[in-house]
């Protein structure tokens, strides 16, 4: 492990840890990183706008993954600012660090860390950001309180979560696979991708944690995959860790049919050059007073 990536999570479930830290998942994400970065770039733009980023800010990015959002923040805060990118899986952080070096970004550091027990002093950051991570914290309330603790007075937090499962991006994959899968029912209170899809769920959680001026907004944004349907399905099946159990729970005799139907559904968004999806996201913001 790179010596700049230190520490480790203490409160993640074994199943969740296996999903995200699996070497095959990390290898797949490394493989698809350039296209994944472009795919999720519109979400990062939403974060940059909601965060009111300016040069000189000290930023903590949670659940940074391979770092597309954290690196964009580092560029936005400039040489007088600084970003600390964190994730509980050191493998993806190492991929992000390689990208930072290639781009010549010297104002970003990488730290393996548990969002529920952050290894930082009180009031260390001007801004906390988190793109598609808050849904997977086993104890969301504790993680939000930790974010509040490390924010300076007047500091802002931005969390982005997925909107309803019944949206185009997921209807063509998860919606179909669910029909064939024998995966156990989802725990509505446990970590899952759509935990904060209900209106008011994210802002209420932030208010409970002590954030002031909490606001929540649902946005529909374009998400474009620069490739054919089969390539997107290959990427999804290799690297979409939250849905691996769903895929693996499909009986062997039904897999071919399930995959064919999924591929046909994805193809409905293909214009001959790219897949033009739309995604529905929830953006929650709050201030430490």
Please tell me about this protein's structure.
The protein is of the alpha/beta class and 289 residues long. It has a domain at 14-164 and 188-220 and 281-287: Vaccinia Virus protein VP39 (Rossmann fold), CATH 3.40.50.150. It has helices at residues 14-21, 23-50, 68-77, 90-102, 140-150, 168-171, 174-180, 201-209, 229-239, 244-248, 252-267, and strands at residues 58-62, 82-87, 108-112, 125-131, 151-162, 212-225, 275-287. The protein has a seven-stranded mixed sheet. Strand 2, helix 4 (90-102) and strand 3 (108-112) form a beta-alpha-beta unit. Helix 5 packs across helix 8 (201-209), helix 7 (174-180) runs antiparallel to helix 11 (252-267) and helix 9 (229-239) crosses helix 11 (252-267). It is globular and about 55 Å long. The N and C termini lie far apart (38 Å).
Blueprint of the fold:
Blueprint: H1 14-21, H2 23-50, E1 58-62, H3 68-77, E2 82-87, H4 90-102, E3 108-112, E4 125-131, H5 140-150, E5 151-162, H6 168-171, H7 174-180, H8 201-209, E6 212-225, H9 229-239, H10 244-248, H11 252-267, E7 275-287
Parallel strand pairs: 1-2, 1-4, 2-3, 4-5
Antiparallel strand pairs: 5-7, 6-7
Helix pairs in contact: 2-3, 5-8, 7-11, 9-11
């Amino acid at each position: 492990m790179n010596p700049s990536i230190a520490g480790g999570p203490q409160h993640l479930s074994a199943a969740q840890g296996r999903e995200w830290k699996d070497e095959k998942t990390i290898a797949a994400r490394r493989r698809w990183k350039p296209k994944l970065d472009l795919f999720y770039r519109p979400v990062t733009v939403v974060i940059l706008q909601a965060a009111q980023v300016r040069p000189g800010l000290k930023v903590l990015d949670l659940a940074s993954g391979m770092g597309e959002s954290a690196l964009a923040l580092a560029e936005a805060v400039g040489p007088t600012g600084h970003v600390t990118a964190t994730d509980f899986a050191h493998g993806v952080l190492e991929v992000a660090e390689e990208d930072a070096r290639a781009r010549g970004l010297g104002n970003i550091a990488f730290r393996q860390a548990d969002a529920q027990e952050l290894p930082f002093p009180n009031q260390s950051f001007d801004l906390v950001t988190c793109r598609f991570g808050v849904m997977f914290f086993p104890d969301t309330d504790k993680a939000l309180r930790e974010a509040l603790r490390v924010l300076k007075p007047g500091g802002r937090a931005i969390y982005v979560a997925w909107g309803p499962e019944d949206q185009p991006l997921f209807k063509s994959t998860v919606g179909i696979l669910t029909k064939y899968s024998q995966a156990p029912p989802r725990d509505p209170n446990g970590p899952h991708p759509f935990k904060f899809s209900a209106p008011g769920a994210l802002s209420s959680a932030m208010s409970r944690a002590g954030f002031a001026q909490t606001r929540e907004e649902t946005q529909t944004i374009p998400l474009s995959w620069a490739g054919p349907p089969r390539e997107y399905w290959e990427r999804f099946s290799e690297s979409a860790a939250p849905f691996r159990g769903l895929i693996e729970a499909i009986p062997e005799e039904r897999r071919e049919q399930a995959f064919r139907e999924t591929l046909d559904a994805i193809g409905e968004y293909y214009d001959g050059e790219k897949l033009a999806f739309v995604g529905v996201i929830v953006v929650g913001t709050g201030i430490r007073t």
